[in-house]
Design goal:
With 81 residues, the protein is of the alpha+beta class. The chain folds into two domains: 44 residues, Pemi-like Protein 1, Chain: D; 37 residues. The chain is 38% helix and 15% strand. The chain is built from three helices and two strands; from the N terminus they run αββαα. The chain has a two-stranded antiparallel ribbon. The chain is elongated and about 55 Å long. It starts with 15 loop residues before the first helix and ends with a helix.
Length: 81
């Protein structure tokens, strides 16, 4: 199991093995939560659409595509006005 040490500035380094498996790159945001006596670090969604997609219900499937299409249509209408 990969480990990390807390620095004097209260910083940790996420081990390379974990970064690769999770697809974490410089600049990515992480969430830090307390669950019981555990610290849980998760890759944060980049957008609210990604956050909704984590629910994994059929309701949200394809929502990102629909949202992009709606935004493109609105932008196109605004350009012609």
């Amino acid at each position: 199991m990969p480990t990390s040490t807390l620095s004097s500035k209260s910083q940790i380094v996420v081990p390379a093995e974990v970064r690769r498996k999770m697809g974490i790159k410089p600049g990515d945001r992480l969430t830090v939560e307390i669950e019981g006596d555990h610290i849980v670090i998760r890759k944060a969604p980049k957008t609210s659409v990604e956050a909704l997609s984590e629910f994994r219900s059929k309701r949200w499937k394809g929502f990102a595509k629909e949202l992009r299409q709606a935004r493109d249509e609105i932008a196109a209408r605004n350009r012609t006005v």
